[in-house]
Structure prediction request, 340 residues.
Amino acid sequence: MSSKNHFNDVAPEWDRLRQSYFSEAVREKAIAIAQVQPGKLAADLGAGTGFITEALVHHGLRVIAVDQSEAMLSEMQKKFAGVQGIAYRPGDAEQLPIEDASVDYVFANAYLHNVEHPLKAIREIARILKPGGKAVVTYLDERSYKFLPTEQRDRWLDFKREDVRRWFVEAGLKNIRVDCLDENCCTNSPCGCEEATISVLIATGMKGDGKAATSYPYATYLDIKYPSLTVIDLPALIQACKDRWYNQTLCQVNDSVVRLGIVQGEYHWHKHDNDDEFFFVLEGRFIIDLETHSVELRPWQGFVVPKGVVHRTRAAERCIILMVETSTIIPTGDDNGVNV
Prediction:
């Protein structure tokens, strides 16, 4: 039986079945991460009977609900009879019935596992997003439960996080993040002899505005400010700094250098193929985004990012850090790193 026929058959029972798979906390966290604004237009892909749509409408958004199953959409229309601001459209993941650059947000919960070509599906998501629009995809982590493809008619059992990130990049999305949502999907096998508990992941990205960005608009100074046998005066440098993202080499110690960072904002995603980096916070709150999670550092805390690890650094408010790295490192990343 195809996944479409399966979902047509289970549509009348889907609200009850869904409760054992995804809790309401999943949609609330996804919506919070997207920072939705009332009055905007969102697409809910693989909408089912309206799990995500219900919350979006509650937050004041208009919604285009798309599903391959007409029976699901029919149940959804009954459920939301009289509710304004919802358009119901049957459609395929690789040819969405939505105009180019027309929606502010795209939500897709438990969607990727049922599409034939995930990359094409994500490219369709990027196509329908307005410039600056956000994609929010929630899906299940890698899993080894063999009964799930049979029970849920999933085309795909496993997605590696790096693959999902790569698909977002290839679709042209920016500011990509793939992380754990700290929620689980729980279900039992039809025979009741096996229980599956699987972590729910979230992948987010933003559609660019099409404008060419200035390469690395950061104030980076690689000259050695303080030679050996010289007192290093940080307060004077900090007081004189007017830049929002400032990086100054302070001194060299053997093959490494110590750098001062005065940062506020967000650096681009990048990596260093041959060099580790050490970050140490003197003042403020400093966040290091990795592909799987984020690390938050407070004053007098440090962290090493190993070579080859894709990362992004950011600070919501002015933060002062020290960095230790090899003197030959390219601060902006090797081969432009992963500029997503």
About this structure: The CA atoms of residues 136 and 204 lie 5 Å apart. The first helix runs from residue 3 to 10.
